[in-house]
Amino acid sequence: MDLTGKVAVVTGSGRGLGLAYAQELARRGAAVVVNDVDADVAQAAVDSIEGTAVAEVVPVGTSEAAQALVDRAVGEFGRLDVLVNNAGILRDTTLWKMTDEQFDAVITTHLRGTFTCTRAAAVHMRERGEGGRIIAIGSPTGQVGNFGQTNYAAAKAGIVGMVRTWAMELARAQITVNAVVPVAATAMTETVPFLEPYVTALKNGDPLPPYARKQLGFGSAQDVAGLIAFLASDEAAGITGQAIGVGGDRLALWTHPTETVVEFADGTGWSAEAIADVWPKAFEGSKQTVGQQFEPES
Fold first, then answer.
1. Cβ–Cβ < 8 Å for 19, 45
2. Which of 153, 209, 243, 247 fits 179 for a cystine, CB–CB 3.0-4.6 Å?
């Protein structure tokens, strides 16, 4: 996967998953624009990269920030080929405690930031006429929900919806758009109680058991970075509009929401009484789960 000559912007790449993405893209030859809100963190990330990288310090969300990132890539390296929308924050709390500010902050960074950055990148890529790669970062929470994450779930579900739409809109310009649904040890997963032993093991340099790496699909940030490099490459030219999960030893393709059970009325539509009658017989056994479902560790 030689990315020599490619130029990438990775938002939120000062640390964690974003840093792993930037390091992997640069290792494979791409010039990378690192992004963070903290100048010291951004510069430390640049210093850690083996390859060509510069830092653009700006909080993702606004149109101005998005344009600054594209302009930095074009100004430094002459073009932009790959955008990885990774920037994100958490403001977790239950629905009845969540403030407007907590909701808006997460939506602004994740959802609006993905929109504004992709729009700015798409304008440049379409004008240049040589195609491109847009990669947006989703989450299992956006696919199945998670307790205490109303804002995050909404943002991540919205990102996948936008990805599928953009895949259609940008196809003629040969710009692929895909969502990556990662699971890895980061600051965001350190607070999940059942993952704590595995996070601690990784910090100590200990190997994770097969259950963690396979059933949970949990591992290091570096375990995720290979998928980013693949989707950024010419090898992935035929892949667009997909949501692809990765973590530990697990690689998975998520389906889009689809009807699982369908019943028809006989020209009368569905009254409340008719639905109450048919539901136990046709629908009850096919109700969908919420939250992630894992087989117990043997």
1. yes
2. 243
Say if residues 82 and 125 touch (Cβ distance below 8 Å): no
Alpha helices in the chain (DSSP H): 16-27, 39-48, 63-77, 100-106, 113-128, 140-144, 150-169, 196-203, 210, 222-232, 272-278
The reply to whether 152 belongs to the active site is: yes
DSSP character at residue 268: S
- Domains of the chain, residue spans: 7-254
Give φ, ψ of 135 to 5 degrees.
-125, 120
The pTM of the full predicted model, rounded to 2 decimals, is: 0.93
Q: Mean pLDDT by 10-residue block, N- to C-terminus, for the chain (298 residues)?
A: 96 97 98 98 97 98 98 98 97 97 98 98 98 97 94 98 98 98 84 82 91 92 97 98 96 93 96 96 94 81
CATH superfamily of 7-254: NAD(P)-binding Rossmann-like Domain (3.40.50.720)
Query: Which of 100, 88, 210, 207 has the alpha carbon at shortest distance from 155?
Result: 88
List 21, 152, 198, 211, catalytic entry: 152
In angstroms, rounded to a whole number, what is the distance separating the alpha carbons of residues 240 and 176?
5
- Token match 């989703």: residue? 138
